Amino acid sequence: MTRGMTPADLFRIQWVSDTRLAPDGRMVAFTVTRLDEEADDYCSAIWVVPADGSAPAKRFTSGGGKDSAPRWSPDGTRLAFLSDRDGGKAQVYVIDVAGGEARKLSAIPEGAGAPVWSPDSMRLVSVIRTGGEEQGSAQNSHKPKTPPARLITTLKYRYNGEGFTYDRRRHLFVIDAASGATRQLTQGDWDDTQPAWSPDSRRLAFVSTRHPARDYDRAADIFVVDAEGGEPVQVTPGGGACALPAWSPDGRNIAYLGYADAEDAPHNSRLWLVPAAGGPPRYLTAHLDRDLAITETAAPIWQTDGSAIVVGVQDRGSVGVIQVQVADGTVLPLVHGKRSVTSYSVANATVAFTAAQPHRPAEVYVCTALGEQQVTALNADWCATVELPEPEHFIVHSDGGEIDAWVMRPAGFAPGQRYPTLVNIHGGPFVQYGWTFFDEFQVQAGAGYAVLFCNPRGSSGREDTFARAIIGCPGEPDSADVLAMLDEALQRYDFLDPGRVGLIGGSYGGYLAGWIVGHTDRFVAAVPERGLYNRYSKDGTSDIWSGYTYLRVHQWQNPELYWRYSPIAYVQNMRTPLLILHSEEDLRCPIEQAEQLFTALKQMRREVRFVRFPGENHELSRGGKPSHRVQRFGYILDWFAEKLSAPAG
Predict the structure, then answer these.
(1) For the chain, what is the domain count?
(2) Smallest Cα–Cα separation from 453: which of 491, 504, 494?
(3) E strand or H helix at 346, and its extent?
(4) Beta-carbon contacts of residue 487 (< 8 Å; ≥ 6 apart)
(5) CA 363 from centroid of its chain's CA atoms
């Protein structure tokens, strides 16, 4: 007999990611990560599987550390990857495909980034954050007991998950594949990232912010530099949000993702083509009003004949893979359906990808002209022991038109019973819920709750106008959509108990949860976490330093507007019992946001509890210490069990 998912199941799941197809299309390398309960940490290894599924997947690297970012050499003889197996920061290792021991290639004090092979298999390039105290100079070899003061001269001086970065910049380093000799290729007071080799291995395209106003805007451009050194040349016109360059097979053009005006966010990232020598970019996906940025590493991939480009695409809760014809922008779906692709790779007209479904964690799939097959089943045994409900999709009609929404029945569902219900709100807001495995929802369903979620206005996966509908009024249109979803669901599904409905949201979802409980008392209890509650005080204290994107005015220009769209402005109306969760090292939504909300509610004698997670940042629920992730689930389930009279999981 199966059971519902519990928080402890986080330790039983194999988290599959980062598929990389060998140049001949015969093998697929990928990363498998698991949560180590004893070490209270994450372990990962490189695995391989035949692309035709003729043999089961097998582990390719050994050890108890973190091996990740597998990258095949273009000649197919070696596999490079990152590892911290020596106990320090991650370095580049290389292992022969035929087997044997991995060879440490880099020895960079700051640690290496994911390697990128040159097409001739002679060199690799890595992005490394260099400078500052971590540079390891003789002058800094003996650290004082008391850290020195920091002189800050830039707005962008810290980043969630990394801490203070004010005196360090990311640059390109070229590594010799035979000797490991490393040299810095780019330098300067800016970040150089996302390198891509030209087909002849002589040049590198990369993304950089080499413009005078870089400290005040979000613009980034594509540059090209000789691999032996020299002054980089900007090839995009400036002012845009450019990312993930990819050279055409003939070396004449560079494809990239982005949009024309970086300051006019949010916008769907589109596919562009620019001459490698510079010139006006050509917009290839003018008729596809969807976001093509599915991850920060999912770059466009050219077909070998240069006729088409493969990219990912978000569409109303799903994430697929499409092929765009260079000549006319015609789109051909390659991978689609009710699932979410999380990585993809292409070789010889074969697409290898990882994809997750709501009731199945990600596995590796391979798609050819003959069809598609799943080639790994690393979570099959676990799935056989756990009941993982599948969501039902339904459409909500609101002022914003059609809203995509989903309902999940609780594990052990019995017709004729009514169940407590949890309404979940995603962060972003320019992201989407949908057809993917989300441990949050499965744990909630496993604890006996029906689960409701939707993509309100402001979400990705739809038209630009949909994403931009909350500009100037964040919290109003999207909260209306969330409440419309709840109304529609209560009318449609008689197993939902209207008297036992809870609300939960994180990051922007925490903001929206706070906004909603400040405007209605219809929820029995709520859990806002890592949220934004005071827009005025968040500006200047967050690594996203400006609220301009959604209010289109700076805080000092219109403080009343910032206050109007702050949930804490309505704190006197908040009578819903709240459990506030926040991480103490959150630099995205600093913990002072939660402290303000908790203190105000406590002073008004309202029912509120505050849980602080030391040593964690904004990514607690996704990448925090395993013990903290389990504790977080415990606090949430205990809270709703108490308030909604449901058994805790």
Answers:
(1) 2
(2) 504
(3) strand 340-347
(4) none
(5) 18
Q: State the residue for tokens 């040049």.
A: 203
Q: How far apart are CA 96 and CA 75, in angstroms?
A: 11
- Residue 372, judged by CB atoms within 10 A of its CB (0-12, 13-18, 19+), counts as middle
Task: Kindly state the percentage of the chain with pLDDT values over 70.
Answer: 97
Q: Give 32-62 pLDDT, tens digit per residue.
A: 999 999 999 999 999 999 999 999 999 999 8
Provide the CATH number for the domain around residue 487. Answer: 3.40.50.1820
- CB neighbours of 419 closer than 8 A, spacing ≥ 6? 409, 410, 413, 448, 449, 450, 495, 496, 497, 500, 646
Contact 578, 609 (CB under 8 A): yes
Neighbours of 305 (CB within 10 A): 10
Choose the catalytic residue: 83, 537, 618, 621. Answer: 618
If we measure between CA atoms, which residue out of 333, 338, 328 comes closest to residue 360? 338
Asked about 397 being catalytic, the answer comes back as no
**Same domain, residue pair 37 and 20:** yes
Q: Measured at the alpha carbon of residue 258, what is the angle toward residues 253 and 264, in degrees to the nearest 5? A: 140
CB count within 10 Å of CB 28 equals 29
Q: Is residue 262 part of a domain?
A: no
- Phi first, then psi, for residue 631 (nearest 5°) are -60, -40
pLDDT of 648 > 70? The answer is no
> Residues 308-361: pLDDT tens digits?
999 999 999 999 999 999 999 999 999 999 999 999 999 988 999 999 999 999
Nearest to 417 by CA among 453, 450, 452: 450
For 276-313, the pLDDT digits (tens) are 999 999 999 999 999 999 999 999 999 999 999 999 99
Q: Using one digit for the tens of pLDDT, what is the confidence trace for 551-590?
A: 999 999 999 999 999 999 999 999 999 999 999 999 999 9
Nearest by Cα to 531 from 454, 448, 575, 592 = 592
CA torsion, ordered 432, 354, 362, 291, to nearest 10 deg: 0
Between 524 and 145, name the one with better pLDDT: 524
Could you tell me the pTM of the whole model? 0.96
Tell me which DSSP letter residue 550 carries.
Answer: H
* Residue numbers of the domain that contains 612: 389-644
Q: Which of 479, 507, 542, 621 is catalytic?
A: 507
The CA-CA-CA angle for residues 325, 327, 328, to 5°, reads 75
Is the link from the previous residue into 232 a cis peptide, with omega within 30 of 0? no
The DSSP code sequence of 507-518 is THHHHHHHHHHT
Question: How sure is the predictor about 546, in pLDDT bands with cuts at 50, 70 and 90?
Answer: confident
Instruction: Classify 484 as helix, strand or coil.
Output: helix
Position 122 in a domain: no
554 belongs to the catalytic site: no
| Assigned domain for 151 exists | no
The answer to whether 132 and 150 are in contact (CB under 8 A) is no
Output the pLDDT for position 136: 41
